[in-house]
Each structure stands twice: as C-alpha cells, then as structure tokens.
UniProtKB/TrEMBL annotation, chain A:
Task performed by this protein: Subunits I and II form the functional core of the enzyme complex. Electrons originating in cytochrome c are transferred via heme a and Cu(A) to the binuclear center formed by heme a3 and Cu(B).
Reactions performed catalytically: 4 Fe(II)-[cytochrome c] + O2 + 8 H(+)(in) = 4 Fe(III)-[cytochrome c] + 2 H2O + 4 H(+)(out)
InterPro entries in the record: Ba3_CcO_II_C, CcO_II-like_C, Copper_CuA, Cupredoxin, NosZ/Cyto_c_oxidase_sub2
PROSITE patterns: COX2 (PS00078), COX2_CUA (PS50857)
Protein name as it appears in the record: Cytochrome aa3 subunit 2
Keyword Ribosomal protein: no
One Pfam family this sequence matches: COX2
A cellular component term, taken from the record's GO annotations: membrane
Automatic annotation (TrEMBL), chain B:
Transmembrane segments: 21-48
Protein name, entry field: Cytochrome c oxidase subunit 2A
Keywords of this entry: Membrane, Transmembrane, Transmembrane helix
Domain of life of the native organism: Bacteria
Length: 156, 52
C-alpha cells in the first residue's frame, strides 16, 4: 500500500499521543490511586432513613483529623445542608439518593458525583484551606432543582 | 460526444498522480489541531491535579 510521507508522520504522532494520554491516566489511576467516586456499594433506596450511616446524616469523627460526612439527597434538598468542617480534616463523603438521580458538586473542587438511587457514592477530600464552598445539584431532578443547594464551611 | 482516450498511456497517469498529492496544508492543519487537543488535555489534567 502506498502511503504519503506526511501521512506516516501524523499517524505516528497521533498514535503516540494516544499512548501517552492512556499511560498518564493509567498510572495516576492504578499506581497513584486517583479513582473516580466509587459506586460499588448498594443500598435499598426505600430504606435509606433506616440504614446506617444514613439514619443519622451529618459529620462524624472517625479518627485523628479524619471525618465521615454522610449526606442524604432527595427532591429537593441535601440533608444536612449546612456543614462545618475543621481546617485540614480528611473527610470521606458518602452520598445516596432517596428518589431520583441527583448531582452532588462542591463548586471549585474535584467533588462532583452523580447520585443514583440504590447506590452509595464515596469520595475522600482533604480541606486544607478555610472558606466556604457551595454544594450544588447538577443533574436536573425536577421543578425545585435550582433551589437545591448546601454550604460547607471550613473553619480553623 | 465522448471520445475514447487513446493518447494517454500508463506512465502518463502515474506522473499526474504524484503531482496532485501535495499534503503540506493538510500536515499543517493536522498538527495545529493536534497541538490544540494536547494543550486542552494537559490544562484539564493540571486543573484536576491542582484541585486534589
């Protein structure tokens, strides 16, 4: 097969780029553990209010400077929606939905999850700077979607 | 009326084909697009790392 010289150049370049991209993502995912929010834990969406830890949603201290934040998402609210976190805390956030698909985004951070009923989403984040963060629902979930907000305050 | 082309020989057509394939512009646009994709990919990746 006859191939133009330039064609060989850009095909090699393109395939090399593809390998570089995949290697960078592969190394950061499997060697450095930068994983997307887990969705492997399941829950009965009709019994969220009776299932621990979601029967008592909120911030729970689990160790030295380590916390667990359990949030129940439903139409159209985050429970709880006002959270205070001490600076430097390593927080494992567990989120589940009681009804339809919602979004859980903490604006300006990498926390951004699609919350599906029946699944528990988990992400861990260390809050190193004081300030206020807004929690938003970014999956259209109904008439009150735009009013679904919450606030995280990182304090000294 | 269509006429059968009796004049054109095999060597003639081959010569014309070589002349028609200048891919300089294509090479330039492919690399321009390529560098734009690389730039966007790298910036998004570093934004993600910065927010960790």
């Amino acid at each position: 097969m006859h191939m133009h010289k330039y064609e060989k150049i850009w095909l090699t370049f393109g395939i090399a780029c593809l390998f570089v991209f995949l290697t960078v993502i592969g190394v950061s995912a499997f060697a450095e553990g930068k994983q997307p929010p887990s969705c492997l834990t399941t829950i009965d969406p009709e019994k969220v209010d009776q299932t621990p830890p979601f029967n008592k949603p909120g911030l729970v201290k689990t160790g030295d400077n380590e916390y667990q934040l359990n949030i129940v998402v439903s139409a159209f609210a985050f429970t709880p929606n006002q959270i205070e976190i001490p600076k430097g805390a390593k927080v494992t956030i567990n989120v589940t939905s009681k009804d339809v698909i919602h979004g859980f985004e903490v604006a300006g951070t990498n926390i951004n999850m699609m919350v599906e009923p029946g699944y528990i989403n988990t992400i861990t984040k260390t809050f190193n700077q004081t300030g206020e963060y807004t929690i938003l629902c970014n999956e259209y979930c109904g008439a009150g979607h735009h009013m679904m907000t919450g606030r995280i305050k990182v304090v000294e | 009326m269509a006429k059968p082309e009796l004049q054109r020989t095999k060597t003639n057509t081959k010569k014309m084909k070589e002349h028609d394939t200048s891919l300089k512009g294509t090479l330039a646009s492919v690399f321009l697009l390529g560098f734009f994709i690389i730039f966007s990919w790298v910036s998004v990746y570093f934004l993600f790392l910065h927010r960790l």
